[in-house]
Amino acid sequence: MAQVTKLREHPDFVDLDAEREVDLHRYWNALVARWWLPILGLIAGLVIGYLLSLGGNQVYKASALLYLGQPYSGNSAIQSLATNPTTVNGIIHSAAATQKAAAAAGLRPGQVRNKVTSKTLVGAKGAVKAGQTPLIEISLTGKAPHKTAVATNVLAAEVVAKLAGFVNEKIRGFEALQTSLAQQLASNQQQIATTRAAIVKAKGLSALEQLVLISNNNNAIQQRGQLLIAKAQNDQQLSQAQNVEKPQIVERAVPVKTTARSRRNSMLVAAFLGLLLGIFAALLWEPVTGRLRTA
C-alpha cells in the first residue's frame, strides 16, 4: 500500500482513471451543449429514409395458400411427404419445378428460384397444434404482375401434384366402388318392383308360390338396406379423402403491389445513422471549430 502511495506521489505518475473520468465528462458536456445536433441528425435520417423508401423499385408479390392434406390408413394418420416440413420448400426450389413455372410465365428460371419463398402459417401462439395440418404460403416477387402470379400458381399446383399421389389412388378406389354400388342399387330397385308386381298378380297362384314371391321381395328390401349402408360409408370415406386427406390450393395467387425496400426498415436505419452522425458532430464540434479559428 505504501508503494502505491509513493508511486502516486511521483511527479511522473499519470492517473489514468482520473483522465478517463475527465474525458467522459468532456464528451458528455459536448453532447449537452450541442444537443440539437443528434436531434437534427435523427430527424434528417427519418426524412431521408422515407424519401429513399418512396424511390424504391416497384415490384409485385403473389402468394398462394396451400393445404397439404393429412392421409389416413384406416382410422390412423400416416407419415407422408405432406407431414415433412421441408417438402414444400424443396419442391418449389427444385430445378424441374422452377423451369416449369418459368416456362409457363415467360420468365427465366433464376427469376423464380431466387425470388420464391414458403412459410408455415401458425396460430396466435406461434406454434402448430399437435395433430393439426398447417397451412403453407408460397410467395414470389417480381416486376411483372401477371407473370409473377402465373409462376406462383404453377408452383402451387406442382406441390399439390407431388403430394397427392397416395390420396388420388384412394379416391379412384372409392369412386369405382361408388359406381358399382349405384349399379347394384338400380338393379335391386328393379328387382323389388318386379316382385311387387308379381305379388299383385299372384291371386291365381298357390299359397306356397305367393310365399316365395313375398320372401324374395323381403330379401330384396333387406339387400337394399345393406347397399344403402355401404354407400353411405363409401360416400363418407370419399368425402374425407377429397376434403381432408388430399392436398389442395386454398387460395390462388393474385399479384399485389409492394416495394423492394421496406419503408419502416429504411427509416429506422437512416435515423440510426443520422443519430450517430449527429453525436459525432457534437463531439467534434469544439475541436474542429477551434482549429478553424486558429487557422
Radius of gyration: 39 Å
Which sheet architecture does the biggest sheet show?
Answer: 5 strands, antiparallel
Q: Which structural class best describes the helix and strand composition?
A: alpha+beta
Instruction: Give the mean pLDDT.
Output: 83
* Helix content range: 55-70%
**Regions with pLDDT < 50 over 5+ consecutive residues?**
none
What's the CATH topology name of the domain at 58-164 and 247-259?
Alpha-Beta Plaits
What percent strand?
5-15%
E-strand count? 7
Which descriptor suits the 3D outline? rod-shaped
Question: How far is the first residue's CA from the last residue's CA?
Answer: 49 Å
Order of helices and strands: HHHEEEHHHEEHHHEEH
How large is the count of helical segments? 10
Q: Do you know the CATH architecture of the domain at 58-164 and 247-259?
A: 2-Layer Sandwich
CATH class label of the domain at 58-164 and 247-259: Alpha Beta
Which descriptors apply to this entry?
rod-shaped; Alpha-Beta Plaits; alpha+beta; 65% helix; 295 residues; five-stranded antiparallel β-sheet; 13% strand
Quick synopsis:
The chain has 295 residues and is of the alpha+beta class. Helix content is 65%, strand content 13%.
